[in-house]
């Protein structure tokens, strides 16, 4: 298991304190100076931890006042960020169970979500099921191009796919595009997710890219409607400063 850095340990600890209302929405976190004392570390490390919390939408930096804790009780799905379910649950102090249903070598599709990819690439096909409160809630079907991901095991998927890609394979994952629809899903998927007779689910199709703009992952995520909920968090860039 990868060793967490100091900034990650600090960020995780603050997340736990927010989750258990030690720091409530509307409260300010201790000053950077006080956090340095509490965690026995440098101001640079504290600032990196706070930057991570800011990117997650958990705090807002207020000039002259400090770090304001935001109301994130409804943030249940990482719709904007490039992050795995395992990592997101870890950030939110939750646990998750993942079952790998299929791991095999296949050729990627030539089209995806209405996009013509202009090629079919040798890939790993991974199908895994995520349980929430012991209920099968999210079914992911992914193609990982072998030119970027030469090998992968079930343990890599279960332990954290993106941690494996970034820390073990040293991939620099940059961004993804996502399309969200509500669709009637095939009978097999409906049975896996234990859907009702109407067989409708939220479907998220995402295409993920490396920092050199190479497409390396295609994901179709089927989600039970009663378990799917998100509030998007977006920071506006001030046009006057750009």
Question: What report would you give on this structure?
Answer:
- The chain is an alpha+beta fold and 242 residues long.
- It folds into 2 domains: 6-69, Arc Repressor Mutant, subunit A; 85-227, Chorismate lyase-like (Chorismate lyase, 3-Layer(aba) Sandwich), CATH 3.40.1410.
- 26% of the residues lie in helices and 32% in strands.
- The chain has 6 helices and 10 strands; from the N terminus they run αααββαβββββαβαββ.
- The chain has a 6-stranded antiparallel sheet, with helices on both faces. Strands 1-2 form a two-stranded antiparallel sheet.
- The chain is globular.
- The protein starts with 5 loop residues before the first helix and ends in a 19-residue tail after the last strand.
- Residues 74-81 have low confidence and may be disordered.
Distance between the termini: 40 Å
Name the CATH architecture of the largest domain.
3-Layer(aba) Sandwich
Q: Structural class of the helix and strand makeup? A: alpha+beta
Uncertain segments of ≥5 residues (pLDDT<50)?
A: 74-81
Strand content: 25-35%
Please state the CA-atom Rg, rounded to the nearest Å. 20 Å
Which descriptor suits the 3D outline?
Answer: globular
Let me know the number of strands.
10
Reading side by side through the largest sheet, how are the strands ordered? 3-6-7-10-9-8
How many separate domains? 2
Topology-level CATH name of the largest domain: Chorismate lyase
Number of helices: 6
H/E element sequence: HHHEEHEEEEEHEHEE
Biggest beta sheet attributes: 6 strands, antiparallel
């Amino acid at each position: 298991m990868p060793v967490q850095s100091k900034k990650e340990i600090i960020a995780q600890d603050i997340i736990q304190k927010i989750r258990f209302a030690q720091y409530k929405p509307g409260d300010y976190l201790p000053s950077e100076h006080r956090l340095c004392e509490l965690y026995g570390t440098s101001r640079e490390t504290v600032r990196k931890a706070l930057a991570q919390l800011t990117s997650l939408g958990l705090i807002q930096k207020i000039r002259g006042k400090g770090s304001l804790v935001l109301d994130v009780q409804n943030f249940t799905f990482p719709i904007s960020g490039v992050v795995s379910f395992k990592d997101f649950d870890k950030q939110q102090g939750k646990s998750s169970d993942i079952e790998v249903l299929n791991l095999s070598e296949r050729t990627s599709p030539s089209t995806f979500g209405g996009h013509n990819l202009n090629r079919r690439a040798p890939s790993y096909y991974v199908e895994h099921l995520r349980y929430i409160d012991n209920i099968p809630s999210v079914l992911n079907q992914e193609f990982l191009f072998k030119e970027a991901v030469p090998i992968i095991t079930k343990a890599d998927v279960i332990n954290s796919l993106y941690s494996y890609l970034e820390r073990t394979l040293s991939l620099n994952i940059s961004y993804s595009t996502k399309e969200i629809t509500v669709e009637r899903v095939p009978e097999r998927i409906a049975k896996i997710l234990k859907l009702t007779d109407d067989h409708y689910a939220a479907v998220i199709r995402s295409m993920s890219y490396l920092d050199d703009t190479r497409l390396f992952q295609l994901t179709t995520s089927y989600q039970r409607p009663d378990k799917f909920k998100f509030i998007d968090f977006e920071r506006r860039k001030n046009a006057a400063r750009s």
